[in-house]
From TrEMBL:
Pfam families linked: ABC2_membrane_4
Domain of life (superkingdom): Bacteria
Keyword set, alphabetical order: Membrane, Transmembrane, Transmembrane helix
PANTHER family per the UniProt record, alphabetical: INTEGRAL MEMBRANE PROTEIN-RELATED, MEMBRANE PROTEIN
Protein name as annotated: ABC transporter permease
Keyword Cytoplasm: no
Species annotation: Aneurinibacillus thermoaerophilus
UniProt keyword Transmembrane present: yes
Chain ranges passing through the membrane: 16-37, 61-82, 103-131, 143-164, 171-189, 219-237
Amino acid sequence: MKQLLAAEWLKLRRSGMIWIAVLVPLFLVVQGVGNFLRYRDTVFAGSTRTEWEILYEQCMFMYPTMLMPLVITVLIALLARVENVHGGWKQLLTFPVTRGQVYVAKLVIACMLVLLNMAVLSGGTLAGGWITGAEGQAPYGLLLGRGALAFVAALPIIAIQFVLSFRFSHIGIPLTLGVGFAAPAIFAANSEKLWIFYPWTYPITTFFAPSMERFDKGLLMYGIAVTLFVIIMTFGLREFKNRDMT
């Protein structure tokens, strides 16, 4: 398994996917820090929120609603495309590895990419606060802890996009479905009763939990997220083992 993961990591480095995982959150951080500095002494002056909270909101504003699920969709679709083109699956499966090992290795790499994306956003926001001299103690629980919880909340999205990307050889199918699933998330998140049934709202709820009364369902949401991840990935593994690779 170690050799398989090493080989997958080598493919990843050559593909440019790491740049996508890193540059998107860096763009958000730069934009958020710019907004914070621009309105620091005007719009944000006299706010009851701390400067760290304001900076956090400026950097995270667009991330959980649209960019995070889209980045997950693109990264996993590209990860699958590496094998879907030029007979990659046949070549890979000629090595002394099982389909289960290949599946788990790909899943680990997918999760690592998503974690890297979230870590850069959280770490970049923290660095932005230090550079701009945000007043008060840095809220590590908000900046780092919330990012870790957001990964748990995003597990169903990862699972669904993973199964779709490795099920269909044409990259356009998972990309189109991923965009279609992400688009109504912001509207579903505003529903008091139905949001819990739509996993694309989970990252939104996690990142903006302090302003949502519904977060009394937080433990239920995370439990559902983990359960859905296990069920979907188990189904995907069974289908992957029985599929005729071409």
